[in-house]
Amino acid sequence: MLTAIAGFLLAAKGDINWTALAGLAIGLSLIIAAACVSNNILDRRLDAKMKRTRTRALVSGRISPLQAALFAGLLLTMGSVMLAALTNVLTLMIGLAGYVLYVVVYGAAKRASIYGTEAGSLSGAAPIVAGYCASSGQLDGGALLVFLALVAWQMPHFYAIAMYRSSDYKAAALPVLPNVKGARLTKSRSVGYIAAFACVVVLMTAGGYTGTTFLVLMFAALAYWLYVAYRYRTARDSLWGRKMFASSLTVLLVFSLLISTDAWLA
To answer: Does residue 165 sit in the same domain as residue 73?
Structure first.
């Protein structure tokens, strides 16, 4: 939701439709919640094998799959109605596409291939595009660039999780990149995606979607992220993963705040 609201404010350029913003925040939150519940239903047997998820309600039996499915359906319906009524059809379509990408496409891909992370990045980038389009009412270059920015950000972020949660993924037999191809390749790919993120940042300013202050401060944030990747490159893989995970959240916060306030920045 942080990225969705940031995308909305970027496209609004200071002229905020508060009704649409409220509809986006509530409606998209409900659809995201529906995706989380649906994911918990489909992953309950995998979740039972992983330390971080074995206490979830469906795993422990506190909630039945049928109860969860009914709840997910209610959340999805309410969220869809809210987006349709208070934003626009395009935003609704993006929200539903994000749901399908996460529950169906990512749900299948993560079980079968190391490229499940890439599939997951598509659904993870849907909220910022939905936010942008809830304000602008159209898919344009700005929507494409914020989508690419979030795809590029998510890859090192989720590689970092896979690094420090390696044992969980092994227990569930999920083929994440560090476990299949090794830590060295994972680290180098992470740096590559950070560089790709930097390229998108440049294009956002070059295209007139953001200003110079955004460019300068984002380069500082990305330099910090690269520094962390370099500083801990020879540390334990789990420590590298934790440090990269924490720094990725800092970068996302800076990115979201900057595009939210870009209309008032120089």
So the answer is: no
Domain residue limits at 23: 1-139
Neighbouring residues of 137: CB distance < 8 A, sequence distance ≥ 6: 88, 90
Distance CA 116, CA 176 (A): 8
- Span 220-229, mean pLDDT? 98
Quick one: 2 and 127 in the same domain? yes
E strands of the chain, at which residues?
Answer: none
Per-residue exposure over 226-238, b if at least 16 CB sit within 10 Å of its own CB, e if not: bebbeebeeeebe
The verdict on 126 and 168 lying in the same domain is no
Residues composing the chain: 266
Q: Based on the fold, state whether residues 181 and 158 are members of the same structural domain.
A: yes
Average pLDDT over all residues of the chain: 96
* Alpha-carbon gap, residue 236 to 127, rounded angstroms: 34
- Two structure tokens written together for 186: 């994972």
Distance CA 233, CA 236 (A): 8
The tens digit of pLDDT for each residue in 155-189 reads: 999 999 999 999 999 999 999 999 999 999 999 99
47 and 122 co-located in one domain = yes
Q: What CATH number did the domain enclosing 81 receive?
A: 1.10.357.140
